[in-house]
Structure formats: structure tokens, C-alpha cells
Amino acid sequence: MNLKNGPRTRYPRWDDWKWQFANRITNAEALSKVLPLTDCEKADIGECLKSFRMAITPYYASLIDTTDPNDPIRRQCVPSIEETHPCANDLQDPLGELKDSPVPHVVHRYPDRALFLVTLRCSMYCRHCTRRRVVGEEDRSISEKALGTAIAYIRKHEEIRDVLVSGGDPLVMSTEKLERIISSIRSIPHVDIVRIGTRVPVVLPMRITNELLQMLKKYQPIWINTHFNHPRELTEDAAAACTKIVDAGIPLGNQSVLLKGINDDAETMKRLLLGLVHMRVRPYYLYQCDLSCGIGHFRTTVEKGIEIMHELTGNISGYAVPKYVIDAPGGGGKIPINYEYVLSRNDKEVVMENYKGEEYKYPQPV
Ligand SMILES: *Cc1c(COP(=O)(O)O)cnc(C)c1O
Ligand code: SF4
After folding, report:
1. In this structure, are 280 and 190 located in the same domain?
2. How many whole angstroms from 197 Cα to the centroid of ligand 2?
3. Does residue 280 lie in a domain region?
4. Are 76 and 181 members of one domain?
5. What confidence score (pLDDT) does residue 97 get?
6. pTM score > 0.85 for this model?
7. Do 13 and 66 fall into the same domain?
8. Is 313 left (phi over 0), alpha (psi -120 to 50) or beta?
9. Cα–ligand 1 centroid distance for 233 (angstroms)
10. 264 included as an active-site residue
11. Same domain, yes or no: 51 and 130
12. Are 238 and 199 in contact (CB under 8 A)?
């Protein structure tokens, strides 16, 4: 594959998501055609692929700056030998999802919402993936039988009013298969909103077709959350995909992961967040990198995360500021981590600091 100078004109089916999917780069040899690699780097990639597969869409690969070994796009998709280095505190099931899974494919941790993992496939395998232990292992999506069991669970639990369809990436499934899943969820009277978690707008924006949106629109209210991590991902193609989603009346949110050397500085984060708001994508969560095995080199300190949040808050539109959370190891769920603006508090007054570090007092009601 040749991705230099306008691959879109070279490959007539560039804008066809099935072509992009079929032509993913999945081994070191193919990668070396688009990104110069030494023999040692090729061997390292081969070693990494023993524990977590690689797949890079031609579109996402075309965004790599091939001259920069630390390019933020490259680091998210090209394996690094550091993935094979064991790291203190690594966990097999970092979010403790197994213990909160009453039936296969469903994680029911919070009172009113459930996570429904409908596939283990993705269009790209992100090197920092939380679910790298299981994602990419099998190439099939949920069987009809398992779908039935999961739907029966949700139907039985009337407290579930929000179902988060995730994976893997649900939008790599065919529209027909996805419709079967979404319409089954929609047929449950107590389910109010259906959410889809997908990285397709970032790594395979051509998947956002009119056909897909026409289907989704039948099952409103639908919300979509995507996963942009770096301002360089905010391309014209990505913007067009996001515009289509939002114009279809589907609110679009974004969850980023704080990644060392990729987006762990306030300036990069600001460009990302303001760029998202410009595209009408609402920043939702900023995740502290979890304890999955093989991603230790992506972890940055919580202090750094708090410092970035502090620099954002008050300095840019509130709309652009996500919630910074740690998904607590062992299954505690998402816990918001904040800069401490309250200096002291008693029954008389609250002493606090504003975004500039100036002190203010609020007298408590008598
Ligand atoms: C993140 C998550 C949700 C959704 O949480 P929100 O805070 O509502 O976005 C639901 N279930 C599980 C298991 C989750 O990890
Ligand atoms: S798209 Fe999501 S589930 Fe798939 S590899 Fe990336 S982070 Fe993991």
C-alpha cells in the first residue's frame, strides 16, 4: 500500500468502509510498506502481536507522521516492545468487570444502566486498550443465543433505563446485525436511552454512512460516545462523520484516555477539547489510564491529570471540559478526581480558591 500524497485518488474505494476494513494493516511486513521499520522494530512488533493483535485502517495509517518515532498517531496504533514489559500493579481484569457480569456480555454495575458488550472486534486495535485482554481475540460478534440471554436479563431488570452498547466496536458490525441488537433493546419498555460507544469516527470515519444513520434514527433516543485522544485526529473526514451524526439528531460525546507523551499536557488537551466542541462533540470523560497489562508506558501520574484539569477549568468554556475520572481497580466504578478548590469549610463559611488561585469566602446560611 502507498499512502503518500493523496491515497484517496490512488485507491478508488478509499471512502468505502468495507474497503478500509478489508485493507487494514495487520502485520509488520505490511506496516513496513507505509512506515520505514528496522529489522529489530519488525521483530519487536512480531513479539507484541503474540499478546495483542494489530489492525490499522489505511485511513488512520495515512495520518502517521512517518518521520517522528513518537508521533501521537503512531503510538496509538503501532505496537511498542514496552507492551511486553511487565509493570508493577498490572491487573488481568483491571475494572473488575467479571464480578459484575451476571450473564455473558453484560456488565451491570450501576443501578440504572448496563454495559452490553456486543462484539470483540474493532476496526483498529488501540495499543492502550483497556480491554486488550479480550478484545481482538475472536472475530465474531455475539451469537443469537447469547444475544437472547443478554436481552432477557435487561428485560427482567426494570431498573435498567440506559443501555450502553459497546465492545469491541459495535459499529464494525453490519448495519443489519446492529439493527437486530438495537431493535431488541428498544423493544424493552423500561429502557429509555441507548448509548453506543465507538471509535469509528476517529479511525474509520467512512463507516458513518447515511444508511447507518437512517437505521439509528428509528430507535431514538440514541446517544453516541466516541474516543478522540489527540487534536491531529480531528481531520476533515472525522469532522464530516461527526457532523453527520449530530445532524441526524444524535448527541455525540467524547471520552479520552490520558496518555503519557501523547496528550498529557494542557496545551495539547486544550486544542483537542476546543476542536471537539467546534465539531459539536461534547467532551464527557477524561480517563486516567487503567492497570491493564502491557500499557504501563502510557500511564501518567494522577498529579499530572489534576494539573491539566486545573489549567483547563475556568480558562476555556465549561462545555469543553470533561470530567477526569479513575475507573477504580477491582470494580469500584468511575470516581471523579478533582483539583481541590475548597480550602476550608465549616458551618459558618466556605473558603475557596477560584481558577486564578485567588481566595474567596461564602458565608453559610444562618
Ligand atoms: C462507564 C460505565 C457505565 C456508564 O457510566 P456513565 O457514568 O453513565 O457514563 C456503565 N457501566 C459500566 C460497567 C461502566 O464501566
Ligand atoms: S476501539 Fe475501543 S475497544 Fe477497540 S481497541 Fe480501541 S480502545 Fe479498545
Report:
1. yes
2. 10
3. yes
4. no
5. 83
6. yes
7. yes
8. beta
9. 25
10. no
11. no
12. no
Check whether 253 has a pLDDT greater than 80. yes
Return d(Cα 268, Cα 300) in angstroms, integer: 15
324 is annotated as an active-site residue: no
Indicate the average pLDDT of the chain: 96
Q: Domain check: are 13 and 110 in the same one?
A: no
Choice between 139 and 4, residue whose per-residue pLDDT is larger: 4
Domain hosting residue 269, numbered range: 98-336
Catalytic residue among 290, 293, 299, 324: 290
Ligand 1 and 113: CB distance under 6 A: yes
Residue 131 is a catalytic residue: yes
Q: Are residues 73 and 28 in the same domain?
A: yes
For residues 197 and 332, state if they share a domain.
Answer: yes
Per the domain annotation, does 363 fall within a domain? no
> Is a pLDDT exceeding 90 seen at residue 243?
yes
Indicate the number of domains in the chain. Answer: 2
Cβ–Cβ < 8 Å for 206, 20: yes
* Cell numbers for 221: 433516543
Q: Does any ligand 1 atom lie closer than 6 A to the CB of residue 110?
A: yes
Ligand closest in space to the Cα of 130:
2
- Give the ligand 2 atom nearest the CA of 167: 3
Reply yes or no on whether 60 is catalytic.
no
Residue 322: cis peptide before it, omega within 30 degrees of 0: no
